[in-house]
Every structure is written in C-alpha cells, then in structure tokens.
Amino acid sequence: MAAGNGKLPLAGIRVIDFSQVMMGPCATQMLGDYGADVIKIERPKAGDLSRTSIPDDPGGLDNPVFLSLNRNKRSIALDVRGDQGKKVVYDLVKSADVVVNNFRPGVMERMGFGYGELKKINPRIIYAFGSGFGPRGPNAHKGGQDVLAQAVTGVMHRRADAASPMTVYPTALADYSAGMHLVQGVLLALLQRQHTGEGQEINVSLYNSMIAMQMQEATMWLMRQRELNWGAMPLTGVFATTDGAVVIVGAFKQNPLRDICTALEIDDLSADPRYDSFPKLVKARPELQRIFRERIATKPTAHWIERLEAQDLLCAPVRHMREALDDPQTAVNGMVVRTNGAGNDPLRVIGSPIDMSAAPIRLDRPPRLGEHGRDVLGDIGYGKDAIDALVAAGVVS
Question: Which domain, by its residues, includes 299?
Fold first, then answer.
C-alpha cells in the first residue's frame, strides 16, 4: 500500500464518476488505485445498483459486490434532476480532468451532462463513455449487459464441444475487458492532452471489447472463413481424475501426442497413421479425448500433474476459486489485499493485477453512500452555509 497519493502516477487527477455496476466502476477503481481522486456521484438513498443488486446483509453497508469495485473513491449522494444539483456537477467539472459514465447513449445529454456541454465549461475535460454497443449504429439504443455481449459477439456460440449446450460464461468477461479498455482510453487521452492542452471524448463498448478479445479467431474467419477454437484443439481438454480434474494443453511441442501418451503410460498413438498429421488429429479428437478421459479417470490429480510435467507438458489442476485465493502464489503476487469496511471491520479484497515497482497501489476503503458529500463540496469552494442549504433542500444527502 502506498504511503501517500503524491508518489502515485495519477496524483492530482480528478475523476467525476457517474458509473455504476461493473464496467465503469472497475475502470475508475483502477484509476483510484494509482492516485486519482475519484468522486463517485450516486443517487440519493439508493446509490450504485451494485450496493443492493445482489442480496446481502440487511444493513447493506458491506455488500461484497460493491466493495470489490469501489475502493479509493469518495461518494457524494446528489440529486441531479434539478438546477441546484446540475450546478454542483458543473462546478465539479470545472476542476476535473475526467468524467466517466456508462449510461445508455443519450442519458447524459438529456441530463445536461453531454460532452458538448461539459467541454464548454472545461475544454480540458476527458469524457469517457462506456456503453453496450457504442453511441451510434442500429443497436446504440439498446441496453448493454455482459451476458448479452457474450451472445451477440459469437463468444457464447463457440465452445470446446459443439454437442454441448450453449451457456453463459460465469465471469463478467465483457464488463472487465471494456472497463480496462476504458482505463487505457483515459490514460491515452491524458497523455495526448499534455501535447494539445485539450480534452476529448472516449467511447468504449462491451460489444467492441468482446470483438477485440477474439482478434485471432475473427481474423482467421475474415481471411480464411475457417473456425479457430482454442478450446476444441484435439489434444487439449479437461479430464476428471479420481479426486478432481486436470486440464492438458497439448500444443507448442514437436510431438505433444507422443509426450501425452508417455505421461499416461499408454502406447504411442503418434506412431499410428490414423493420428500422424494435424488434420487427422482434429478429425480423431472424439476418440483421442475418450482414450485420455478413460485413462486419467483411474488416478488422482497429483499423480497426473507430476507425470505430465515430467514430459514438459502444459497442464494444471482444475481448482475451486477458494483454492486459488489460498494459494501462496496469490499472496506473493499481492492479489488479496486488506482494507476496512464501513464499520472499520477488516476486509479482504482483490488487489491490482499491475505490479509497479515505484507505484504500489493505495488502499482506502470503499465509501458509504454520500459519505464525502460535504468534503467534496468544500474542495470546490462551497462554504458551510451553502452546503447546509443543499442538504436541507435534499439535493445532497
């Protein structure tokens, strides 16, 4: 944990964060991890949807979903529907560097907070917008969501076994990848602003991020009209053992089939003319997978990992997440970190995947709803009487 924001690369950068749920918050959390002052604008009484969207403790103060995405932020509960609330936003923008939102296209504009309006107030503002499909095109008006992005970009359709039913990938691939693309866009815009002195608008979408994630598969189709499916490679698969499962990646070697057979203590199938070329391996995948599956099912995971690794084959045990979180490698990498919750109870959350030798992340606890409203207003010049008036009017709570 960093000793102070002044040593971090984004110290002095102020981010006004309208985003909620995951795509935007995971982006602004990373900006906050490295020193940015992230001011989270939330709905009075309700706040970010992730505070309550997954049922948790009745108090709702320490919902793990919200906590996972919102450390290093200051929260102001602000009613932006009226003129007083809008003026607060405009005053915040005057001193800000970045504005982030992940509403549907047109929502910020209807509230009076579109890029065209905000850049009149602050020409240096960087306006980072994340959506489902992008701000233009036939689907721009549709609501975006991670699972929908998996479906419409081809990710859900492609699976290791075409006979298996299509299913939802259980981790939010689209939200996280789009959030990280949003971070990249903000950092690039900050660098460009050093040269031009002006801000710009950045658009990132779940749709584009999932298309980009498939750059190898998509280019193979565009150039060859051929499917590329890493999960369906003939010598790659997940196989049950007597006490769990092991995954084998039979690739990146001169003769992986021979080495797999050696590890499994079976006849060398690579010497069989039925399996002596890659096209033949692809055609014979069901039979090869059956042979591997039946053999691997006879012994425990640790036995097979030892034998496969002895042949320098890529392999790993298939573990529950709890095992990964308890792994010493996870601790060494700093991927589980400690902070405090709303009641100062100790929390364990996931750290940053970026390890910078001169800029370790800071780690302030996630905010309670509206916790920093008075401080935020004071920072931009509001006096006590003005703040009290906004609170009395219900604009700030």
Answer: 245-317
